Amino acid sequence: MDESESVRAIWSGLGLPGMVDVHTHFMPKNVMDKVWQYFDSQGPLIGREWPINYRADEAQRVATLRAFGVRRFSSLVYPHKPGMAAWLNQWAVSFARQTPDCLATSTFYPEPEAAGYVADAIAAGTEVFKAHVQVGNYDPNDPLLDEVWALIEDAAVPVVIHCGSGPVPGDFTGPQRIERLLRRHPRLVLIVAHMGMPEYSEFLDLAEEFDQVWLDTTMAFTPFVESTMPFPPADTQRLHAMGERILFGSDFPNIPYGYVDAIRTLTVLPGVDDTWLRNVLHDNAARLFELS
C-alpha cells in the first residue's frame, strides 16, 4: 500500500469524505526556495536538522495533497520584513483562483499600509490569514496592527498564528502577548499553530477561556517533536475535551517525515475516539470554514 492509499484508508475508515488540512504552505517559487534553503542550513529559527520530505514542484505538491484525499488546504504565506505582504497576497489570490480546493489565504505585517491591503483582502474573499510572530519578529500588539486586528475581528476571518515558542523562542513568542491581544479583541478567531508548542498548557488555557480560539495539530505529538517538546501527559484529558476546536494541520511540504505519520500519531493518542478523529481530521474545519 503506497502512502496515499494509507492516508485514504484512515479517513475512509472513519466514514469521512476526505480531510481538511488548515496548515499547508504554497508560496511563490523564489520564496519557497529560500524557505527550503533556510531549513537546509538549519537556520537559527530551526535549531536542528530538518529535511524537507515533500520537496517537489508546485503542481506535484498539489497533486500529492489531492491524492491523499485532502478536500481543502491552505497556502500559508508570511512576510519577514515590510513591503512583502501585499505582494504575497496578490500571489495567493492568483493561486487560489487556479486551485479551487485551496482556501483563499492572505497575510500581513506591522506596517502603515497593512490596514489597507487587509481590507482589500477581506473584500476579495480571503478565507484565512496567516500571522507568523516568530519569523516576522513582531509583537502582535504592535500599534501598526490595531486596525488590522479590528478589521479581521469584525469580518470573523480565522487567523492561523504561529505564536508559540517552538521550535525555538522568538523575541515576541509565547502566550502572554496573545492573551493581551485577545483581551483587546475577544471576538478574534485565532487558530494557534502547532498546538502552541511548547507552551501547550498555556494555550489550552486560552482556548478554554476564549471560545473563538482554536488549535491546530501541526507537527505536535509526532516523534520528531516529542523528542524535544513533548506534550504534557497531564493535559491529555483536556485535549480530548477540546476536541471540537482542534484542527488537523501538517506543515506540508516542510515536514521531515511522512504525511501519513502525522495522522497515525493522532489515531494512537490516549483517550481519543472516532468522533474526536472525525472532528479533527475534517468536521471541525468544515464547520469553521463553512465547507459544503
TrEMBL record:
All copies of domain Amidohydrolase-related, residue ranges: 20-291
Alphabetically ordered keywords of this record: Lyase
Record flagged with keyword Disulfide bond: no
Entry annotated with the keyword Manganese: no
Database matches in InterPro entries: ACMSD, Amidohydro-rel, Metal_Hydrolase
Pfam family, one: Amidohydro_2
Name used for this protein in its record: Amidohydrolase
Protein source organism: Mycolicibacterium mageritense (Mycobacterium mageritense)
